Amino acid sequence: MVLTPLGIDYLIFNYLQIMSIWSSKVSITQYHVQGKIDSPVIEIITSGLDNNTITEIDQQVSDRAVGWTSVDKPFQPDFSGSSFVFGNYFVFSLRIDKKNIAAKILKKHYTIEAARRMSESGRDYLSKTEKQQIKDHVLNKLSLRIPATPNIYDIVWNYEESSLWFFSNLKAANEELETLFSKSFNLSIIRIFPYTAADMSSNLLDSQRDELQKISPTLFIK
Amino acid sequence: MLDVATAYNRYKFLGEEFLTWLWYVIENNQNLIKNFDQNFVGLEIGDRIVFENRRKESIERITIKGEEAGLEEGILALKNGALVTELNMIYRSAELVWQFTLKGESLNISSLNIPKTDLPDSDEDIEGFVLEKLFLYDKSLQLVKNLFTHFVKLRISNKWQNKEVFIIRKWIQSS
Asked: Which of A15, A47, A57, B48 is at 20 to 30 A from A109, Cα to Cα?
């Protein structure tokens, strides 16, 4: 067993470092999960995770990928053996990989390629279609060479309580989560904000819910 | 239920009134919070509080930062019609301490610091470690949920206009 200076098993230490939910400061967006899954629950969730696992796009033309990954091994996802189950919680991550090609790099390669095409054709102009084709060609070539930057957002799903914590407040990441979750598990997630938190509270009577629809802002000053 | 996007915008004020009310509770009625946590020690303002005043032609935003920051400017903002839009809080329960920021319009949590826990000694301890961490996250989220639910019931009752608003106004004016 290899130990870190702190005397902790090195493998465990790496495990902990990777999991962002164990960071010192986190953000959480809360959701209510609507509906339940038919039995066998774990198998169906495993299937949803497996079928929508992140695919690697390094050395591919794609410039973006979105998918699930393991919270402890975000670059070698593996959901077998109920590895994502911790007590009553399902813990896994959303990974969004993007290739960022600087505009100046794109412009440089476009300019070089455009000049080459004009030289070959003996023309000093390019049509709009040709320009677009060159741009697409250059983008694809660069995408093959540039590695994707991974962004990993952890998720904790309490299946029995129908609640889900998403460890990010970023709008775009939350939108990707909502889309992929629905696709993977055929369940909708509803973001918790003041109105939904109030409306979906099990502690409110129907009459109280009706009152909620009628309220308007308070004036705390005269 | 309303369309989600419409509901979010229409009821932003609900979250901001909640934070404004919560500031009042923190300053004047900590006993209320004991109802939600039998080990409750205290809830205090942390290192950041943000106010927005949308009653004016252009939105005025005031941020008070720092652990020792005086809140007089905040009371002044309230006197001018602003509401609390973000509140950083320190929550103490038994020997444990949490700190986090709550945003009113979304109820999103940010900068959440939970109490430190021991690292696992072996692979077998990892599940216990994970569950302990999740329990600690849950405790802070449950506090917010319980406070918000209590606030909502109060807010939609007659007691809000007849009593609570009057008390909060008095607190603002006399501070």
From this structure: A57
Give the model's confidence band at A6: pLDDT under 50 very low, under 70 low, under 90 confident, else very high.
very low
Backbone angles phi, psi at A161, to 5 degrees: -85, -5
Could you state, in order of their start, the residue ranges of all structural domains in chain A? 30-98+151-214, 103-144
Residue in chain B nearest A24 by alpha carbon: B113
The whole-model pTM stands at 0.90
Peptide bond into A147 cis (omega under 30): no
pLDDT digits (tens, 9 = 90+) for B49-58: 999 988 777 7
Pairwise CB contact (< 8 Å): B4 & A89: no
CA distance A163 to chain B (A): 11
- Residue in chain A closest to B121 (alpha carbons) equals A8
Domain range annotation of chain B: 4-174
Distance from CA of A46 to the nearest CA of B (A): 19
Phi, psi of B109 (to 5 degrees): -100, 140
For the segment A160-178, what is each residue's pLDDT rounded down to a tens digit?
999 999 999 999 999 999 9
**Cβ–Cβ contact A202 with B under 8 A:** no
ipTM higher than the 0.90 cut: yes
Establish if B9 touches chain A: CB-CB under 8 angstroms. no
